[in-house]
Design brief:
Family: Belongs to the alanine or glycine:cation symporter (AGCS) (TC 2.A.25) family.
Membrane topology: Multi-pass membrane protein
Largest sheet: 2 strands, antiparallel
Protein name: Amino acid carrier protein
Pfam families: Na_Ala_symp
CATH class: Mainly Alpha
Shape: globular
Structural class: mainly alpha
Strand content: under 5%
Order of helices and strands: HHHHHHHEEHHHHHHHHHHHHHH
Strand order of the largest sheet: 1-2
CATH superfamily: Amino acid/polyamine transporter I
Number of domains: 1
GO molecular function: amino acid:sodium symporter activity
Helix content: over 70%
Number of helices: 21
Oligomer: single chain
Number of strands: 2
Length: 463
C-alpha cells in the first residue's frame, strides 16, 4: 500500500508540475488575447461595477446579490493556501516565486471571468426556484455534451470528500496545537456549524459569507498592514528582492537552499493557481446564483475575486514573511507552513501567533461551508435536489473523520482527483470561448450595459 501511495504521489507531483501549469497558463493567455485583455482594459470601470456598487440595488434577477456570490466564491479560495502556501512557495522557489504568482493571477483573471460568464449564461432554476449553474450546466446546455457534465459533476462530488477531510484535519490540528482541544471535539463543533449553514442553501451561505469574509480578511490583512506601516522602509527592498529573483537563480542563504529559475516559476504558478482556483470550475457555481442583468457583469466580480485573493491576501503574507527574515532562518526549511505564524509573532509577540491561528481557523471553516455547498450542487445535478440535500451529510461526516486524522492516507489522491475535475472544465471553456467573446463584445458595445453605465452613446467614443 505504501509503495502504491508513493507512486500516486509521484504522478500527482509530476501532473501539477509543468503539464497542468502549462495547460492553465496557455488557456489563460489565449483567453486574455481573445477577450482583448479585458482584465487590464477597464480597471476603474471593473472596480466601480463591483466593489464600488455594493450599496446599490443589483440589476437583473438572481438568488443572491453579486457581493454574496463573490464572498461565497472567496470563502473557498481564501484559505490555507494564502497563509501556509505562500511561505512554502518562497522557501522552495525563493522570493521571485511571488512575482510569478502575480503573473499567473493576472492571466488567470481571463479564465475565471470566462467560467463565470458561462455559468450565468447557461444557468437554470431548480425545484426550489433557486438559480443554479456551473461547468456541468454549460457543458450540458452550451456544448450539448451531458456526458462531460456528468464526468465533471461526479469527479468534483467525489473529490470534495477527501478535500473536506483535509480541511477538517487542518482546523482541528490548528486548534489542538494552540488551545489544546481534542481533534474530535473541534470536528463535531465545526460539523454542527456547517450543518446549520449549508442546509439554509445559497441564500443563507451568502448572508453568512457576506459578513464573515470581509471581517476575516480585514483582521488578517489589517494585521499585515500594521506590519507594513511599522516597516515602510522595507517596502522597496521587498519589491527589489522579488523582481531581481524572478529572472535569475536564487543562491542559498541561511535556512534557504537556493532555487533554479524553473523552480521559482513552478512554485509561483502552482501557489497562484491553488490559491485562486482559476480553471477549476468551482467559483462559477457560486457566481451562477447572482442577481445580474448580463453574464459579463457578473464575470467582472470574478476578476475582483482574484485581485482580493492573490494580489492582496497572498501578497500580504509574502510581505510579512519576507520582511521579517524568518524565511532565511536556520530551520526554516523544516516547516515552511509555520513561517507565517513565526513572522507575525516576531512583530506582535504571542498575539501575532494567535491572530494567524484564528485567521486560519476562520479561513478553513468558511472554505468547508462553501465546498460542501459545491459538492451538494454536483449531487443535485446528477441525481436531483433530495439527493443533493442528503449528500451534505456525507461531507459533514467527512469533517469529523478528517478531524481525527483519517485524511492522512487520502490526501495523496487529492491532486489527482483535482486534475480529473480541471481537465473537462478547461476543455469546455475553450470550446465555448467564442460565446464568451460574443457576450463580452455585446456587453461593451450595447447601449443597455457598458455604454449606458459610462454615459456614452454609440455616436461617441467610450473610454
Amino acid at each position: 500500500m505504501e509503495g502504491f501511495l508513493d507512486w500516486v504521489g509521484k504522478i500527482s507531483e509530476w501532473l501539477w508540475g509543468p503539464p497542468l501549469i502549462a495547460i492553465l497558463g496557455l488557456t489563460g493567455l489565449y483567453l486574455t488575447f481573445l477577450l482583448g485583455f479585458i482584465q487590464f482594459r477597464h480597471p476603474l470601470y471593473i472596480f466601480s461595477q463591483t466593489i464600488g456598487s455594493v450599496f446599490k440595488k443589483p440589476k437583473g434577477e438572481g438568488t443572491v446579490t453579486p457581493l454574496q456570490a463573490l464572498t461565497s466564491a472567496l470563502s473557498s479560495t481564501i484559505g490555507a493556501a494564502n497563509i501556509v502556501g505562500v511561505p512554502a512557495a518562497i522557501m522552495f522557489g525563493g522570493p521571485g516565486a511571488v512575482f510569478w504568482m502575480w503573473v499567473i493571477a493576472m492571466i488567470g483573471m481571463a479564465l475565471k471571468f470566462s467560467e463565470s460568464v458561462l455559468a450565468v449564461r447557461y444557468r437554470e432554476k431548480n425545484e426550489q426556484g433557486e438559480f443554479v449553474g456551473g461547468p456541468m450546466y454549460y457543458m450540458t446546455k452550451g456544448l450539448n455534451m451531458k456526458w462531460l457534465g456528468v464526468w465533471f459533476a461526479f469527479a468534483l462530488m467525489i473529490e470534495l470528500i477527501p478535500s473536506v477531510m483535509v480541511q477538517g484535519n487542518a482546523v482541528s490540528s490548528t486548534v489542538q496545537e494552540t488551545f489544546n482541544v481534542d481533534g474530535w471535539i473541534t470536528g463535531v463543533i465545526v460539523a454542527a456549524i456547517v450543518l446549520l449553514i449549508v442546509f439554509g442553501g445559497i441564500k443563507r451561505i451568502g448572508k453568512v459569507t457576506e459578513i464573515f469574509v470581509p471581517i476575516m480578511a480585514l483582521i488578517y490583512v489589517g494585521g499585515a498592514f500594521v506590519i507594513l506601516f511599522m516597516n515602510l522602509g522595507a517596502v522597496p527592498d521587498f519589491f527589489k528582492l522579488i523582481f531581481s529573483n524572478a529572472f535569475q537563480p536564487m543562491s542559498a542563504m541561511g535556512g534557504f537552499a537556493g532555487a533554479a529559475i524553473a523552480e521559482t516559476i513552478r512554485w509561483g504558478f502552482a501557489r497562484g493557481l491553488y490559491s485562486n482556483e482559476a480553471g477549476l470550475g468551482t467559483a462559477p457555481i457560486a457566481h451562477a446564483a447572482a442577481q445580474t442583468d448580463h453574464p459579463v457583469r457578473q464575470g467582472l466580480w470574478s476578476i475582483i475575486g482574484i485581485v482580493i485573493d492573490t494580489m492582496i491576501v497572498c501578497t500580504a503574507t509574502a510581505f510579512v514573511v519576507i520582511s521579517s527574515g524568518v524565511w532565511t532562518g536556520e530551520n526554516a526549511m523544516d516547516d515552511p507552513s509555520a513561517l507565517t505564524t513565526q513572522a507575525f509573532s516576531q512583530y506582535f509577540g504571542d498575539f501575532g501567533g494567535i491572530l494567524v491561528t484564528i485567521s486560519l481557523i476562520f479561513f478553513v471553516l468558511s472554505t468547508i461551508i462553501v465546498i460542501v455547498f459545491y459538492g451538494a450542487k454536483q449531487a443535485e445535478f446528477l441525481f436531483g435536489h433530495k439527493f443533493g440535500q442528503a449528500f451534505k451529510i456525507v461531507y459533514v461526516a467527512g469533517i469529523i473523520l478528517g478531524s481525527v486524522g483519517a485524511a492522512q492516507t487520502i490526501w495523496q489522491f487529492l491532486d489527482l482527483a483535482l486534475a480529473a475535475v480541471l481537465l473537462p472544465n478547461i476543455i469546455a471553456v475553450l470550446l465555448l470561448s467564442k460565446e464568451v467573446r460574443r457576450l463580452t463584445t455585446e456587453f461593451f458595445t450595447s447601449d443597455q450595459y457598458y455604454l449606458k453605465d459610462v454615459g456614452k452613446t454609440k455616436g461617441k467614443k467610450a473610454s
